[in-house]
Amino acid sequence: MAIFFLLLYILLALTAIYYIVFFSLLYYWHEKKATFVVVPIIFTFYFFAIGFLVVAIASLAIQYLPNFLNLVIK
């Protein structure tokens, strides 16, 4: 169980780094208007955001599904 929380903390740290880089790219695009470089990178970030949401929802479901089933069955 401790490894799960360690991986969750790593996932949260990587998410923070992701958003720092994402918003810095948005600011760079706002200042330089380098559309041919920055816009494809931003769409790549959307792909990773969706992947993060899928992993987060799946990990929450795995974590709390036994508790939810015990609550429903009783």
Overview of the molecule:
The chain is mostly helical. The chain has one domain (2-73). The protein is 95% helix and 0% strand. It is built from two helices and no strands. The chain has helices spanning 2-32, 35-73. The longest helix is centred in the last third of the chain and has 39 residues, at 35-73. The radius of gyration is 18 Å and the shape is elongated. The model has no long low-confidence stretch (mean pLDDT 77).
Short account of what is shown:
This protein has helices spanning 2-32, 35-73. It is mostly helical.
Give the topology:
Layout: H1 2-32, H2 35-73
Helix pairs in contact: 1-2
Feature tags:
74 residues; 2 helices; elongated; mainly alpha; single chain
Whole-Å distance between the termini? 25 Å
Q: Give a short account of the largest sheet.
A: none
Into which percentage range does the β-strand content fall? under 5%
Helix content percent band? over 70%
Number of helices: 2
* Average pLDDT reading: 77
Elements, N to C (H/E):
HH
By DSSP, the count of extended strands is: 0
Structural class: mainly alpha
